[in-house]
Structure formats: C-alpha cells, structure tokens
Design a protein that fits this description.
This protein is mainly alpha-helical. The protein has two domains: 1-64, no CATH class; 65-108, no CATH class. The protein has helices at residues 6-11, 21-25, 42-58, 75-91; strands at residues 31-32, 39-40. The longest helix is centred in the middle third of the chain and has 17 residues, at 42-58.
Length: 108
Amino acid sequence: MERISPLRLHEDNRMLGGFCLKSLLFPRHHHTTSSNTNVCSSADLIRETWAKLEKLVESKSIQPWVDSEWSFEEVFGFVSYTHKHRLEYEHMHAHNRGKEITSNLVLN
C-alpha cells in the first residue's frame, strides 16, 4: 500500500477528508449560522452535510468505495467482520480504509 504524502496531495490539488459524526452529534461548542443570531443544531448540520455528499456522489465528483453490504439484521456478523479487517489493517500498519454506515433503510 502506498503511503500518503500531504505535500503530494497539495501539489496535485487533492485532499483526503472525512468527518466525525460523534463530534457533530455531541459538539463541545455550538455551531452558529452566518448571522450569529441563531444556533444551528447538529442535526441540521448533519442533514446539510449529508445532502452535499449525496450531490457529490450523484454528480460523480466523488465515488465511494463499497467493501460490502449487510442487512440490518446481520449487524452482529458485520461487527465481527469489521473487527477482523481492522486487525488485518493494523498488522499492515495501515488505517481502516473507510467508515461503516449502518442504516435500516432499503436502498435500490
């Protein structure tokens, strides 16, 4: 696996990004709107961020890498699977390649 160079990402005008859902759900500081008069809830911020991500996927600006899909009823098998893969990645001195998204929605 190739190592990621921040300098190379900068030179190639690329970025490596992500967000931590926990920090959005349980912020230490409130996020405020541009007028600084209303407090924007974390739920609103998550919805707005997710909508922007969906638009990027639909426009093919980003292409998510899907390792596997599991039904909601198979969540225990999924947890075991991700734990096994994390141990394999740690053995290779690499980080988990992505994040797990668990949903009870039916996707087409």
